[in-house]
Amino acid sequence: MFTLRALWLSTLLSCVACQYDFNTLYEVPDGGAGDGDGGGNGGALSSHLIGLWGNYPAMDNECIQCAETSCASAEEACRADPECMEFTKCVAETPTPAGQAVCRAQHSAWVTSNEFQVRDGAGPYGQCVFRDFCARECEGASDLSCVQNYAWPLTSEATVRLTLLLNDSEDLKHTLPGVTVKVCPEGDALCKAPTATGASDERGLVQLDLPTTFNRSFNGFIELQEASLFPTLLKFSWNIGSPTMQVVTMINRATFDFFSTNYFTFPQDPTRGILQTRMFGCTGNTTRGVKFASTGSDAKTFAWYMENGLPSSTATETSSLGQGGTFNVLTGYQTVTAARASDGLPVGRANAPLRAGFATVVVFAPDGLQ
């Protein structure tokens, strides 16, 4: 499914003299930053790769100028890689979580290479701009403008392919082979009747065929277990209706024990569940300024958010890392929500299973129309 342009790419690769003529091949807008001549954002166009995001809501001269100067080397490297250009054009044309999911699936072999950390999301150039160097100028860590402003795809097929690349919270460059994976239907919180099983290969990759339901998408969850890892239930906040590829970080037992001993000093109830929540915004990057809540919380429940790379029980919303969680959540299905902290705008919702002895990881994307 990700080789649709293989013949075109092989032709391009054979033409070494053509490899830098990408402004024409990829129709990068021509006009220069701040030329003021038309366009959906005050005429802010650029002949650099940032110009591909011409319809992005935060695209203005400040964003463009930052991208052109701070991400010049990332742009040069991407222009030298035809598939990086293909991927960048793809995510820029559809800057929504649904569009990015399609792009990752179409280019999954490239995304899951040994450089997967910089190829995920919006790709190495998009990450440079919206996450690393121009997050403030381009609102890369706070953009939620796509909420209820796009639609997740549906399918007429009986199954839909999910590709997971599993990596380790102890070392994010370390992928995880040998993880046992089960596909669990909605409503089966204990996953007594999995619809499919698998295991991650030596690269940390596993492909699963998810069964679709009457709503033409998959709305269940994934169970993942391996001896060195904290057993995990994985729930996406959206129903999956098209081939999807996701990089998923699993919690290492040693890391969990370290944080439990040194940072989570409140009493932990082994009969209850643990919730970890991760919020990704419209650019595909983790998002600041979001609060999580869940049913199944009471006086014994304790919440935390990642702050400056460490968990904090005093923080009240996500930092740019976009992560938080809750200890001692009642087991069974619970409704987990995400809302913008500044005004309470609902931005995500999931019906997630909580199980004693497991961490339930809920991956949020901004709500679409599905």
What do you see in this structure?
The chain is α+β, with helices and mostly antiparallel strands and 370 residues long. It has 2 domains: 6-133, no CATH class; 159-364, Immunoglobulins (Immunoglobulin-like). The protein has 10 helices and 16 strands. The strands form 3 sheets. Strands 4-3-6-7-16-9-13-11-12 form a 9-stranded mixed beta sheet, with no helix packed on it. Strands 1, 2, 5 and 8 form a 4-stranded mixed beta sheet that branches. Helix 5 (82-93) packs antiparallel against helix 6 and helix 5 packs across helix 9. The chain starts with 5 loop residues before the first helix and ends in a 6-residue tail after the last strand. The relative contact order is 0.12. Mean pLDDT is 87; it is low at 1-27 and 29-43.
Topology:
Blueprint: H1 6-13, H2 22-25, H3 61-70, H4 72-79, H5 82-93, H6 97-106, H7 108-111, H8 116-119, H9 123-133, E1 159-168, E2 171-175, E3 180-184, E4 196-199, E5 205-211, E6 221-225, E7 232-236, E8 244-250, H10 253-262, E9 273-279, E10 290-294, E11 302-307, E12 310-312, E13 323-329, E14 332-340, E15 346-354, E16 359-364
